[in-house]
Design goal:
This protein is mostly helical and 97 residues long. The chain has 3 helices and no strands.
Protein backbone atom coordinates (compact mmCIF):
# COMPACT_ATOMS: atom_id res chain seq x y z
CA UNK A 1 0.00 0.00 0.00
CA UNK A 2 1.59 3.25 -1.14
CA UNK A 3 0.83 6.03 1.38
CA UNK A 4 0.82 8.64 -1.39
CA UNK A 5 -2.22 6.97 -3.01
CA UNK A 6 -4.41 7.10 0.11
CA UNK A 7 -7.27 9.58 0.33
CA UNK A 8 -6.79 12.46 2.76
CA UNK A 9 -9.45 11.15 5.15
CA UNK A 10 -8.03 7.64 5.17
CA UNK A 11 -4.48 8.94 5.66
CA UNK A 12 -5.58 11.07 8.61
CA UNK A 13 -7.49 8.19 10.20
CA UNK A 14 -4.51 5.83 9.85
CA UNK A 15 -2.19 8.47 11.31
CA UNK A 16 -4.61 9.12 14.19
CA UNK A 17 -4.91 5.39 14.93
CA UNK A 18 -1.11 5.05 14.86
CA UNK A 19 -0.71 7.95 17.27
CA UNK A 20 -3.29 6.49 19.65
CA UNK A 21 -1.66 3.04 19.53
CA UNK A 22 1.78 4.51 20.25
CA UNK A 23 0.35 6.54 23.12
CA UNK A 24 -1.13 3.37 24.60
CA UNK A 25 2.24 1.62 24.24
CA UNK A 26 3.94 4.48 26.09
CA UNK A 27 1.30 4.38 28.81
CA UNK A 28 1.59 0.60 29.16
CA UNK A 29 5.36 0.92 29.41
CA UNK A 30 4.97 3.37 32.30
CA UNK A 31 2.27 1.23 33.93
CA UNK A 32 4.53 -1.84 34.01
CA UNK A 33 6.98 0.06 36.17
CA UNK A 34 4.46 1.78 38.42
CA UNK A 35 3.34 -1.39 40.22
CA UNK A 36 6.28 -1.09 42.62
CA UNK A 37 5.68 2.59 43.28
CA UNK A 38 7.39 5.61 41.75
CA UNK A 39 10.53 4.38 40.09
CA UNK A 40 12.38 5.50 36.99
CA UNK A 41 11.68 3.57 33.81
CA UNK A 42 14.12 0.86 32.86
CA UNK A 43 16.45 1.44 29.92
CA UNK A 44 14.33 -0.79 27.66
CA UNK A 45 11.12 1.02 28.53
CA UNK A 46 12.82 4.37 28.00
CA UNK A 47 14.05 3.31 24.56
CA UNK A 48 10.52 2.15 23.72
CA UNK A 49 9.09 5.53 24.72
CA UNK A 50 11.73 7.40 22.70
CA UNK A 51 11.11 5.27 19.59
CA UNK A 52 7.35 5.72 19.93
CA UNK A 53 7.85 9.48 20.37
CA UNK A 54 10.05 9.70 17.26
CA UNK A 55 7.51 7.79 15.17
CA UNK A 56 4.67 9.96 16.50
CA UNK A 57 6.64 13.09 15.59
CA UNK A 58 7.22 11.73 12.10
CA UNK A 59 3.49 11.00 11.69
CA UNK A 60 2.56 14.51 12.79
CA UNK A 61 5.14 16.14 10.53
CA UNK A 62 4.43 13.98 7.48
CA UNK A 63 0.63 13.72 7.70
CA UNK A 64 -0.79 16.58 9.72
CA UNK A 65 1.74 19.23 8.69
CA UNK A 66 1.86 17.67 5.19
CA UNK A 67 5.63 18.04 4.91
CA UNK A 68 5.73 14.82 2.89
CA UNK A 69 4.56 16.98 -0.02
CA UNK A 70 7.29 19.59 0.54
CA UNK A 71 10.93 19.48 -0.45
CA UNK A 72 13.21 16.92 1.14
CA UNK A 73 15.13 19.76 2.81
CA UNK A 74 12.12 20.90 4.84
CA UNK A 75 11.26 17.37 5.92
CA UNK A 76 14.88 16.59 6.80
CA UNK A 77 15.33 19.87 8.65
CA UNK A 78 12.22 19.52 10.78
CA UNK A 79 12.91 15.85 11.55
CA UNK A 80 16.52 16.73 12.35
CA UNK A 81 15.35 19.27 14.92
CA UNK A 82 12.94 16.74 16.43
CA UNK A 83 15.68 14.10 16.63
CA UNK A 84 18.04 16.66 18.17
CA UNK A 85 15.44 17.32 20.86
CA UNK A 86 15.09 13.60 21.52
CA UNK A 87 18.88 13.24 21.75
CA UNK A 88 19.02 16.08 24.29
CA UNK A 89 16.32 14.33 26.35
CA UNK A 90 18.14 11.00 26.06
CA UNK A 91 21.36 12.68 27.16
CA UNK A 92 19.62 14.17 30.19
CA UNK A 93 18.23 10.72 31.01
CA UNK A 94 21.68 9.13 30.75
CA UNK A 95 23.30 11.87 32.86
CA UNK A 96 20.83 11.11 35.64
CA UNK A 97 21.85 7.43 35.69
Amino acid sequence: MNPNNLSDTRRLLIAWASLMLLTLISMASALLHSRAGWQPLSAGATVLVFVATAFKAWQIVAVYLNLRASTRGWMSGVMGLILLGLLVEAGAYLMDK
